[in-house]
Amino acid sequence: MSAAEPATEVDDEKFLARLKAFEGRTVGAPTEGPDAVNQAMIRHWVEAMGDENPVYVDEQAARANGFPGIIAPPTMLQAWIMRGYKATAELAEARAEGRRAVGASPADDLMHVLDEGGFTSVVATNCEQEYRRSVVLGDRLSVSSSIESVSTEKQTGLGIGHFITTVLAFTDAAGEPVATMRFRILKFRPGTGKSTAALSGPPTAGSEEPRPLRPRPALTHDNAFFFDGARQQKLLVQRCASCGILRHPPRPACAVCRSFEWDTLEASGRGTVYSYVVVHHPQVAAFDYPLPVAVVELEEGTRLVADLVGIEPDAVEIGMPVVVTFVAVDDELTLPMFGPAPA
Amino acid sequence: MSARSARRHTFAGTTAIAGIGATEFSKDSGRSELRLATEAVAAALDDAGLTAADVDGMVTFSADTNPEIEVARTLGIGDLTFFSRIHYGGGAACATVHQAAMAVATGVADVVVCYRAFNERSGHRFGTGVQGRPPVPNAENASFAWYAPEGLLTPASWVAMFAQRYLHATGATSEDFGRVAVADRAHAATNPRAWFYEKPITLEDHQASRWIVEPLHLLDCCQESDGGQALIVTSLERARDLAQAPAVINAAAQGAGAQQDMMTSYYRDDMTHLPEMGVVARQLWETSGLAPADIQGAILYDHFTPFVLYQLEELGFCQWGEAKEFVRDGNLLMGGLLPTNTHGGQLGEAYIHGTNGIAEGVRQVRTTAVNQISGLEHIVVTAGTGVPTSGLILGVDR
Lengths: 343, 398
Hints:
The complex is a heterodimer.
Chain A: H1 12-20, E1 31-32, H2 39-49, H3 59-64, H4 85-96, H5 106-116, E2 121-131, E3 142-150, E4 154-155, E5 160-171, E6 177-188, H6 224-231, E7 236-240, E8 246-247, E9 262-266, E10 270-279, E11 291-298, E12 303-307, E13 321-328, E14 334-340
Antiparallel strand pairs in A: 1-3, 2-6, 3-5, 4-5, 5-6, 7-8, 7-9, 10-11, 10-13, 11-12, 13-14
Chain B: E1 15-22, H1 33-48, E2 57-61, H2 68-75, E3 82-86, H3 93-105, E4 112-119, H4 139-143, H5 155-170, H6 174-188, H7 203-208, E5 211-214, E6 216-217, E7 226-235, H8 236-239, E8 247-255, H9 275-288, E9 297-299, H10 306-314, H11 323-328, H12 345-348, H13 355-366, E10 378-382, E11 389-396
Helix pairs in contact in B: 1-2
């Protein structure tokens, strides 16, 4: 995750304002689930999940455990109010065609805005549930949902995107609250990710192979401090303890005064693009392409090679101000990367 | 360098390349690298009119997989009094001749074979990058720590970083890089040994070719090739008695610059010079007594086109920042001020790590080149750029 959050475009603020306008909006009228809570659906669910807890299928066992009768598995909550395959497919089709589907909600509209912004990929990141009471056979659940928050732009392992948190309030036939669910997704720009190896699950839809790691740096007594520093979100530059001259890449001695004593300076993280490339070929599985990489000149004076993030390759220019962000590309390796400096 | 008196190399003008030999250049040789090396050395000996029994020295690249003793044993070469390897990839090309000439001039050896052979296309390809390099913690591997984890994995990516800065600083354009490729391919088009024989390209082809690493297009990048090349170095005196007209080694030099990295010298004050080629150039001019005006042709190392522009400037064929005008005026082509890479270069003929360019220098001196520069007296040949490097001036025996 990044320490700084570089903006991608000049009109970012305007775009963010459009997103923020969705915060607090209710996603249409409360919707009643199509079916009452029933044994058949529960049985399919627990079989698929391999959950052998008898309270979901055996009346006696449920009562013996203090429930009023057979209950639905808690994680099944959302299943009772899903709009079904047909409606979902219609929405997806409408979204792909860039039109508003009949029955589209503000949540669907928000997805559309994000698609327009290039944040076309989606992944569910987390889900929290709170129950007032157990859901039992015969319950008829309704849901009303609202968009709780839309985050500013974030650089994540998967890509640059916005987190959207939706709150779903579940009520029973009497209108009494049963449970609430807070559901968070990340809508991100495909190809802007900086890591997937460290994340659980496959890097992209349809890919089952874990992603190969980036080439490892060979760590020596002379250079390990740099990578240790990056893991602590620090951009360290080697400094001669005798004459104070900064040097990068690190060496065991000062070429100016020949001292073997050195310490480090924590750089401000601000610099400019001194030169850059955009790598297209060959494409190595550990990286996303096209890959912009720069020689960044730090304001302290030394240069280093670093990936650029949060900027379209076409927008990179020599001399542009950039700021550091630290990206954990996998469990072992964190690299300083650079994004556009805030204006 | 300024403080010392004029440099003299005892081998300059007293040694010569007496033989050249090569395999065919292909994308899949279908035989071992050792066999390619052996075939090339045998062909060079035949060309010179020498036998295995005459050889007492051997030089190759540290990057070569064919040890001197393997080639010697295969060919029936006997006692060796000199053997040497040179590091830094293609930067070694002219340095093999440099080392051989030093050995001959000092009496360490009489006949030295220089060779380079590989299946660089069908075997290990440099262009696929440095993946899987085990990070044994030594200084050479540690140098990769500053660009491989970031995704700069190939020579193209390392050179592209220089090229972008050069474009910015000099006002040159991608088309100026393209003019180098167009000249190489024009020369290859009339060279039957070239992979791209009868396949010239236009500037439009160059511009339309896909990105490899911006700002480098596909057609800014040399080929990957299979093949072997060998050269025979001996004294000028002995060469005069052999089968071919000698190509006199008027000068030979190696060079590494201050703050030198392998291919990523990004931390110098400036990324628009090649100081290591400047070190070579100063020695070439100083020890030969020649100047750029005395040179009628050049073989400039062309793994990637941008560094051809840098070399024109470092060698003094034009001022810094003016190589773009030099190439726009068509000076690299036959009939230009400095016909360059007349065999087609590594973009057009083959990528044999610069050694095939030395052979072309020899052919130009012998007046046997397919694209012969008329009235040629001296030709400059250079080795790998962006790395510690080397260069030669070869001339006609007068």
